[in-house]
Amino acid sequence: MHGIGEGVPRKDAWEKVTGQAEYVSDLALPGMLSARIVRSPYAHAWIRGIKTDAARSVAGVVAVVTADDLVGIDPFYGAAFKDQPILAMGRVRYEGEPVVAVVASDEWAAEAGAQAVEVDYEPLPAVLSLDAALAPGAVLVHEEQLRPAGHFHDLSDLAGRQGNIVHDFHFRRGQEPDAIFARPGVTVFEDTVTYPMVHHAALEPYACLADWQGGELTVHTSTQTPFTVRQELAEIFSLALSRVRVVVPYVGGAFGGKCYTKIEPLAVALSRHCGAPVQLCLSSAEAFRTARKPSARVRVRTGVRSDGTIVARHVEVHYVLGAYADVGPRVTQKAGYVALGPYRVPNARIDAYGVYTNTVPAVAFRGYGVPQLVLGYELQTERMADALGLDPQELRRRNLLRPGERYSPDDAPVDANLKQDLEQAAGADWAAVLDEPHTGRGIAISLKSTGAPFVSHAVVRLRADGSATLLASTVEIGQGARTVLPQIVSTALDIPVDQVRMLEPDTAVTPYDQATSSSRSTTLSGLACQRAANDVKEQLREIAGRAWGIDPTQVTVAAGGLAHGERTMTYAEAVRAKFGMNGGEIVGKGSYVGEVGDMPLKGITPFWETGAASVAVRVDPETGEVTVLKARSVADVGKAIHPDLVRGQDEGGLVMGFGHALYEEMAYADGQLVNGNLIDYRVPGFGDVPDSLETVIVENQDGPGPMGAKGVGEGSTTVAAAAIAAAVYRATGVVLGDLPLTPEKIWRAMLGVKARETLREAVQEEVGRIGS
Amino acid sequence: MRPFEHVRCVSAAEAVRAWHDAGNEAAYYAGGTELLLLMKQGLSRYERLVDIKHIAALGEIASTQQGVVRIGAAVTHRRLELSPELQRLAPLISRVERDVANVRVRNVGTIGGNLCFAEPHSDIGVLSLLLEATMTIQGLDQVRRVPAWEFFRGPYESAVEQGELLLHIEFPACREGTRTGYQRFRHHERPSCIAGVLLEPGEDPGNCGRAVVAIGAAGYVPQRSRSAEAALSGRTWREVAAGAAEAAALTAAESDPTEDLTGSVEYKRHLVEVLTRRAVLEAVGRMEEGQA
Ligand SMILES: Cc1cc2nc3c(=O)[nH]c(=O)nc-3n(C[C@H](O)[C@H](O)[C@H](O)COP(=O)(O)OP(=O)(O)OC[C@H]3O[C@@H](n4cnc5c(N)ncnc54)[C@H](O)[C@@H]3O)c2cc1C
Q1: Contact status of A765 with chain B (Cβ, < 8 Å)
Q2: Which 3 state secondary structure label does DSSP give A200?
Q3: N or C: which end of chain A has fewer CB within 10 A?
Q4: Contact A625 B185 (CB under 8 A)
């Protein structure tokens, strides 16, 4: 009836498959105008002048808006710092930055208008790479004093800029690793890996429809965080929160790229300027110029004893955040915090930095900075095992945190069985493929703190006929929230799942929820939904108890009704009993509020998300091309409320990570993004999915969520690239941590190995000759 | 995409006229897999699209008594892949078509659109050189024939001039016992290197009388390797197999790769060598198995 552990048909499947599902770009309001953006062709430049006359005279153009027109508002936004102007002011900081917006009666007129705008730039030297940004005397991407946005209590100690470093995070435990490294009996391994700039490539690019009506603002937008968007809009336009309404229809993929405010302030500014609703729908090429994943360089140094026990680790990670901080500082510290991996590390030091460059702003991305780190420490695990003559799984087992053990003394104990996850990942029998030449298997395992989006509220309204409406602000981004959350409510109320209807998020109607992110919704928003349903149940018990003259605790709830001994009452009868008429409703409220305090991330992680995967690859010894033959991923979810959705999340996350490992990279030439479109930028397709792709679901009911559930959706992404790099190492002997592992890179690395081998042979020959 | 006029034509002459009537503002529209992308991205703008999909002659696959296979310009990749007739007459084309693009593109994309667009990473370009095809092109007042080796002028530039319509492509019959090898390397959406080899038996069936080696995708235009062809022609089959590496090295030396997102010049030249060697061996191998 509720499909727990079996699954029910997705609520959105039919609408999506038949094209009925509405997205922001499908919406229209009377008198609606369309907007197009003129973007900077330079990575860094002064804006000397903007000529708008020609654009204004294009038929259909209503307004040509520059930063000068943004009067009477605070024209900056940003999740961590308010460092991003709605339209560039005097200076552009990356190629693709919005400079001018043209509003017209339709998008073609807006397009023609945009083409008629002339901007005069004076190009400036730009910092495009991490090294350039960190070099002494580097050009500063931001010179102004940074204003913390104040949205996150865990970002309360934002210190601001030092050179191009916008934020840093440090963690220490035990003694300085360097001191331990110097001890006898400790072998030290050092690896540096780099993770490329990649884009989310959601099929639906950013889209927003803003309707400014005097002091009332309604915004339809494709976002994962309607309440943060509301907050920022209220601050920018000086409106009360109650005057800002953010509505979120279906979202066509998000992957973190739609967390926090993106194009909404511009759409609203245009609507306010024109006095009419304005729709702003970006192309996918523009989406590439709106957000990306933080690229990173990770340096891992680890000291181990000969038996494989890790004694000390130092991780230094630089996240390249691009031209504006967005939520990058939070990624820096949240991921930086778990840089030690799922291992027991008595002496540790973590130094994490977020760095500005003149590239597309980096934002949240599935995995939240962790995949970058896992690549570093897990590739090293494989290498370490080889050097010590140990089985890599044995080395991992020796160091993995046990269930209940703490990553950090004041954080939540680990609520997962990592050894079991590892065994499941490593357990597949792939001997038949691995016996073939040029093949290899790679394994990776990870731990991710779910961190701080701590608040979710939910309301369940039990109608007079016994059906229910669920009000919660979790966004359906394709993960199946509108299916699973009703399942949780229907289970608690014990009514059929099709009797529970969930509304779309609407900040004027549905209650506060911090974010649809961090794999948190089933677990934490789910708890709020479950509690709201339980609240309804308590009220029903009281009604029956009163009606029957017994203590409410004696009333049992089952099969969609109330009972005590022989007496029964349906929910509809209970509602009627309460109000004495065929009307009224029971309103239940539920909340989840996380625990905050003075720990490294200013809060206790509600649960730990783990990732464990194993892949088998073949590498063409001549071309360097990698074929993924098999993949197996472990989703340690506590309880799979909807197993198919768990698999969907897990498989999708894994294949997305394969893309980063093998194909994807936003390529820059002279500051220009040269493959910023879905034609030249290569994401994995079905043809790249291995013939055997398997998700093993581990259910120990050890999560804090409903029925012992924990989050899923990011774990497999955190380990995918690391597992591939490890498998390539096994297949070729080449340690390559500079993603993506393109055929050419692998070929060159193999050539290097061959050259070294030939050299070694030559030397040996020489030695032999001299000896004889 | 900006609105445009859509004109559907049923004869080649009508289509050419419809194009010229719109001045330089028109484009022929076949499957649209390239054209519509350009228009959506705003890279090209046309007021009129002249739809050639309904011109019967352009949709035909026919063969003459001399064994020439004539393929209309508007025949889709999918038909080339699945046509039983083609599988019999020119099996290499069907075999290669299986790997072209993806099924959605193959369903609507046409052989003529592929050739006229002259995108450097084209399989059809290599096939037409390898099989020594001839293209027939119609202008306002003349029809001309252009051999494949004169067809490709540069990236996105073919012998089809503004306003001209490609009518069909003719593939001559292969000699009995001809064997082919075809290797493509794909890391991005489209192949980054292709090598095709055709080995025709000589008077003495124990010899390779003539070899054709064609490569593509690595550089701007598909190319033949005359030096490799010379090295392989007139040899016994065993010598052809033994000489595969040498022929591959000659092809690589003769190749003219260009650097792009799919690889450096050095790497692409290396790919040319690897794929050519594999294609020669594939062709010899197919002969042993007795299949073209
Ligand atoms: C995702 C993707 C992957 C691809 N992968 C491959 C691949 O692996 N191998 C490969 O070879 N190709 C590949 N292609 C290219 C594909 O084969 C071509 O897009 C397709 O064949 C073009 O045909 P069309 O009918 O769609 O051309 P259209 O887009 O309709 O036309 C292309 C151009 O040719 C002109 N034109 C079309 N027909 C004629 C004519 N008869 N006379 C004169 N001008 C004409 C048009 O005006 C236009 O300028 C790929 C394409 C895509 C989109």
Answers
A1: no
A2: coil
A3: C
A4: yes
User: What's the burial of A176, exposed, middle or buried (CB within 10 Å: 0-12/13-18/19+)?
Assistant: middle
Q: Are residues A543 and A650 in the same domain?
A: no
Are B143 and B190 contained in the same domain? no
User: Does A106 lie at the interface with B, CB-CB under 8 angstroms?
Assistant: no
**Structural domain that includes position B96:** 1-173
Written as one string, the DSSP assignment of A165-183 is EEEEEEEEESS-HHHHHTS
Is the CB of B191 inside a 6 Å radius of any atom of ligand 1?
Answer: yes
Domain count, chain B: 2
Give the pLDDT band (50/70/90) at residue A771: low
Asked if B102's CB is within 8 angstroms of A682's CB, the reply is: no
Minimal CA–CA distance to A441: which of A428, A456, A453, A424?
A: A428
Asked if B181 and B144 count as a contact pair (C-beta separation under 8 A), the reply is no
ipTM for the whole complex: 0.95
Are A109 and A46 in contact by the 8 Å Cβ rule? The answer is no
Whether residue A3 is contained in a domain is answered as: no
Residues B61-87 as b/e (b if ≥16 CB within 10 A, e otherwise) read bebeeeeebbbbbbbbbbbbbebeebe
Q: Are strands A295-304 and A187-195 parallel, antiparallel or unpaired?
A: antiparallel
Residue type, A82: K
A311 and A371 assigned to the same domain: yes
- The 3-class secondary structure across A704-727, one letter per residue, is CCHHHCCCCCCHHHHHHHHHHHHH
Rounded Cα–Cα distance for residues A250 and A21 (Å): 7
In terms of Cα–Cα distance, which of A590, A360, A553 is closest to A468? A590
* Active-site residue list of A: 714
At B3, the amino acid letter reads: P
A200-214 pLDDT, tens digit per residue, is 999 999 999 999 998
Cα gap A257→A229, rounded to integer Å: 14
Number of domains in chain A: 4
3-state secondary structure of A75: coil
φ, ψ of residue A234 to 5 degrees: the values are -60, -40
Q: Which residues span the domain enclosing A493?
A: 455-593
Q: How far apart are the first and last CA of chain A?
A: 84
CB of B117 within 6 A of ligand 1: the answer is: yes
pLDDT tens figures, B74-91: 999 999 999 999 998 899
8-state DSSP, A294: P
**pTM of the prediction?**
0.95
Q: Give the span between the Cα atoms of B17 and B12, in whole angstroms.
A: 9
| Cβ within 8 Å, pair A623-B264 | no
DSSP state at residue A523: I
Count of CB atoms situated within 10 Å of the CB of A178:
14
DSSP helix/strand/coil, A328: helix
Phi, psi of A392 (to 5 degrees): -55, -35
What was the pLDDT predicted at B65?
86
